[in-house]
Amino acid sequence: MNTSYIGRFAPTPSGYLHFGSLVAALASYLDARHVGGQWLLRMEDLDPPREVPGAQDAILRTLESYGFQWDGPLLRQSERLPAYAAVLEQLFNQGLAYACTCSRKQLEGHGGIYPGFCRNAGHPAHDAAIRLRVPELEYRFTDRVQGEFRQHLGREVGDFVIRRRDGLYAYQLAVVLDDAWQGITDVVRGADLLDSTPRQLYLQELLGLRQPRYLHVPLIIQPDGHKLGKSYRSPPLPADQAPTLLLRALRALGQPAPEELAGASAAELLAWGTSHWDAARIPRRRTLAEARLR
Ligand code: GLU
Ligand code: ZN
After folding, report:
1. pTM for the complete prediction?
2. 119 CA distance to ligand 2 centroid (A)?
3. What does the pLDDT look like over 126-144, one tens digit per residue?
4. Domains (range + CATH), the chain
C-alpha cells in the first residue's frame, strides 16, 4: 500500500454530480492511481438544510457506474462533528477565534470582507457565529497546475466564519481537519476553490497540520458563463453515457486519449487514463467552456 500519496474526492450532496465534478473526480483519481496511491471518498454533508434528498446515494451510484473504486469506507463529515467542536473550542479559548453577532444587514456594503465589528467585543460563543481572526499577511503557494497563487488574508478575505450562528460548521474548518485526519497528501479539486486555499493554509499553520500539495483543475463553465454546480442546478450525470463523458473529461484534462478508445468501456478508459496520466498536460486555465469540449 502506497501511503506516500493519499488523494480524495469530496463531493457536497447539495446537488448531483455534473460534468465539472466528473472532471475533478477523474483528475484526483488518475493522479492518485498513476502513482499507485490511495483514493479516498468523503461526503461533505455539513449542511443538512441545503442537502438534496437522495443526492448522497445518487453520487455514490454515479461514481460506481463510472467505474471509480475508492479505498476504505466512505467518510461522512456528519460523523465528525465532535472533532470540529473540539478544535473550535480550542481556537475560541485561545482567542484565535471570536463570536460575531452581526446581522447580514450590518455587514452590507463592506465588499464581503468582514469589517471586524465584533473582534474585541468578547461576546459569548452561543447563539453567535464564530470567526477566525486572520493575520495581516499574504499567503502564497504553488499550485501544480495554476502556478503561484497569492492572497492577502487581511485585505482580501477578512476574519472568516468557521461555525455559523445556526451551529453548522463551515467548510473551511472541516476540510482542513478532515484532510489532515485522513492523511491526505494531495488535494486535487476544481479551481473555484483556489481562493479558499490560503484560508486553509492559515488554519493548517495555526493547528500545526501538514500542508498537502494542491492541484486545481479548470472549472467547467456553461456557454453563458455559469459555472456548473452548486448555484446552477445541473442534471445528474447519465449512467448510460459513462464512456462518452469519461472520454470527454479526459480530453478536458488535456490527456490525449486516442480515437481507438471511442468504443471502450468506463473501466478501460480509467485504465488507459491511469497508465497515461500526465498532470503537466492539464490546461493552465481557471475555466473551460463545456460547449467547446463536445
Ligand atoms: N465539497 C467541495 C465541493 O463539492 C469540495 C471540497 C474540496 O475538494 O476541498 O465543491
Ligand atoms: Zn460581528
Report:
1. 0.96
2. 7
3. 999 999 999 999 999 999 9
4. 2-79+184-203+211-293 (3.40.50.620), 81-171 (3.40.50.620)
